[in-house]
Amino acid sequence: MQSISQNSLSTNSFAFSSGLKFNLDDIDPYTACSIGELQQDHFELDMDYYLCLVEENGHTFVFDAFMFLVDYDKKGGEIRNPLTNQPITHFSIYVSSKEAPDFQLYKEDEALFQDENNLPIYWNNPLAIPENKIAFLLKYGEVYLSQHPPNKGIRALEMASELGSLNAKIDLYEYYNDLGDRLQALYWLKKTVTEVADPKLNDIIFYASDLQANNYHEEAFQFFLKGAEKGNLFAIMEVIDYYGEGIGTETNHQIINDLRKKIPEEWRNASRDSFYEHLERIGYNSSSTSYLDVLNN
Prior knowledge:
The longest helix is centred in the middle third of the chain and has 16 residues, at 130-145. This protein is 49% helix and 13% strand. The strands form 2 sheets. A 7-stranded antiparallel β-sheet has the order 3-2-1-9-8-6-7. The protein has a two-stranded antiparallel sheet with strand order 4-5. A hairpin with a 4-residue loop joins β4 (27-28) and β5. The protein contains 13 helices and 9 strands. α9 (217-229) packs across α10. The protein is an alpha+beta fold. The protein has helices at 35-44, 65-74, 115-123, 130-145, 151-162, 166-179, 182-194, 201-213, 217-229, 233-244, 253-260, 272-282, 291-296, and strands spanning 3-6, 13-15, 21-23, 27-28, 33-34, 49-56, 59-64, 91-96, 103-108.
């Protein structure tokens, strides 16, 4: 990969491989901050820093890449040097990180304007609000998750998950589930049902069923109880059975009695298997709550 190496004569001077140079003390015209200050601000937030080099009449102009993109968007896709107002025919984007502070060539010219290439510049910026960062990361993850290797997509979705995105957790669960990686699929499924305020009923019961199948009955009971409290009859039956087997504390006794009353009266004395067969026959599933609504449809 082409790089800008730091000049041994100056701690602030970098030499471009073409022979052009720039200095960390150079001022970005968009922010009125030096490139070195902007780079350090990013590093302190564990963000990569991207800069833009524009070559014009033998001179190198240096701009903050994020602001360069913002200016490009504001001007409807017109690319001009903000200092000279001359059309830009060639530019390069370089990236540096706290772990690898020497600038490495990232993208050149029109390649920058492809979503999968410019989205990292948007989320690696202190000005980007969390909601926008999540949107950029989800879009980037979607692009790269389908490519080989999918590492970039996975990392983007993990970052979105760390910012609190439920969609990222679901995307990772579905990716690993489709891949057949059961352990990773369950890891992300657990996050969808334990780290969000209102997890989907289907996810709760699916996770509880997997815990049950692997003999984690105390944990399965707790998640079936969550599903039962949302009104799902499959979950209610599992909770009642668990309670009958001695799983569940006395503090749940009233809850269990209340849940039992939610079973249709004509099925309260039937075997679990026959009741399950009936539910499946009428189309009641792990996402259902109202028995009558399903029965009457």
